[in-house]
Amino acid sequence: MTLPEQVHMADPATLAARLVAEVALVSAAAVGSRGAWSLAIPGGSVVDVLLPALARAELPWDRAHLFQCDERVVPLGDARSNWDALQRLGRMMARLHGATLHRMPVELGDDAVRAYTSRLEQVGGRPPALDVVLLGMGEDGHVASLFPGRAALDVEDAAVVIEPDAPKAPPRRLSLTMPVLTGASLTVVAAFGPGKAGAARAAFDP
What's this model's pTM, rounded to 2 decimal places? Predict the structure, then answer.
């Protein structure tokens, strides 16, 4: 088992450059062995801080499958939707680089779990193993829509789970499970600012 590496950087630009270099290595290896690579993208501040650097990078986007780490169960076009934020960058990458985008179909209700699991398995096998997972972290230590103390955090026999009562609005969420998030070739958890420093320390030294 590879132990996690904790990296402290003074500014987001330096972190973004490190991220691009790591993703370049993983994506090139995946394309070389399978002809494609996969990336799971979060919502939140990570989208605005880190993803633009990835979008500008000379990565094999025409061989990329982009998944969501989680989504809030809200109507399409709702400002709280992670997909709404991802469209700003994701559509640009799809248009310029040919990446394939896989939106979480939250409008399907409980059937969304089965539908998104099927998409994951088509790309990443069964159980699905992604190449790169990029996550943010909340001040309470949550990643994706897996919150401390909630049953969804401990699900190990599924790739996708519904969180019915998240402590933050909107309460109903769809999320990749911890085995998928941590089972990637490269999982990056980014925590910005002093407010999240304690949660980050606890994650590395619980």
Answer: 0.91
